[in-house]
Amino acid sequence: MVLSRSAVAVFDPDLTDRPAVARQLDFADHQAEVPMHEHRKGQLILALHGAVTCTADNEIWIVPPNCAVWIPGGVPHSARATANARLTYLFVEPGAAKLPEECCTLSISPMIREMVDRLAREPADYPSHGHAARLARVALDELVDMPRERFNLPISGNAKIRAIADALTVDPSDRSTLAEWAKRVAMSERSLARLMIRETGLTFGRWRQQLHLVVALRQLAGGASVHTVAAELGYESVNAFITMFKKALGSTPAQYFVERRALPPSILKEGRHE
Given a cut of 80, is residue 9 above it in pLDDT? Predict the structure, then answer.
């Protein structure tokens, strides 16, 4: 059996000086883990189906359907995609557009999604004057105006915060209190509380809720049912999980994916009962 290739082995965007080039990847054909790497070009990762989780700048970023994560050039990053993920990468030459200088998640309009999809069918060395070049220019102009979303989890370079993040990423259902975590990392509860705010900008409770949101979006986009995700995150009931989700994003899981025209069958079935 031939092992699938890593996505980073498929295409080197830095071999072209075009202002923007795009490639589409189906992760049924590639390894789910994309190792730590970086480009001269900035990279926009769009999820057409499924989801991908990126780690960059001491933060974890989730890319649910119809959103994108922007990673500026020169920033080391890695990624993990769900098995059903179909992604489009847009690589942007430094200085080609006034995009953020830091990593962020962006909403992506249907028009941008279609333009990037069309650009992905062009060769990397498309003529600098022609249809593809004009398409790239318009896509970049539109991209600059896209609003930001809050689908990131600050994890910090601090070893103790990173240890808590690693443990809760493996077992997000762990409901240990701040005091219990403080004992595990050999700190007082007050010191850990101050460290968490200083390193992440969030209280421990808000930070863990954001972790749950990131995990939930990834699992739901990957096809898991609301019941399964609620249980994996340690919620006492499905309703408690839905309440948290709605408070954070303004809609239930079913409504959220319907609005983005990316409703997995498992949520469609359960959405009738929300």
Answer: no
Alpha-carbon dihedral 190, 178, 212, 62, rounded to 10 degrees: 40
Residue 79 confidence class, pLDDT cut points 50, 70, 90: confident
Does 123 score more than 70 pLDDT?
Answer: yes
Q: What residue ranges define each of the domains in the chain, with the CATH number in brackets? A: 7-149 (2.60.120.280), 157-271 (1.10.10.60)
Q: What tens digit of pLDDT does each residue of 151-195 get?
A: 788 888 899 998 998 888 888 899 999 999 999 999 999 999 999
pLDDT band at 31 (very low <50, low <70, confident <90, very high): low
List, as one string, the DSSP characters of the chain: -PPPBPGGGT--GGG---SEEEEEEETTSB-SEEEEE--SSEEEEEEEES-EEEEETTEEEEE-TTEEEEE-TT--EEEEE-TT-EEEEEEE-TTSS---SS-EEEE--HHHHHHHHHHTTS-TT--SSSHHHHHHHHHHHHHTTPPEE--EEE--S-HHHHHHHHHHHH-TT----HHHHHHHTT--HHHHHHHHHHHHSS-HHHHHHHHHHHHHHHHHHTT--HHHHHHHTT-SSHHHHHHHHHHHHSS-HHHHHHHTT---HHHHHHHTT-
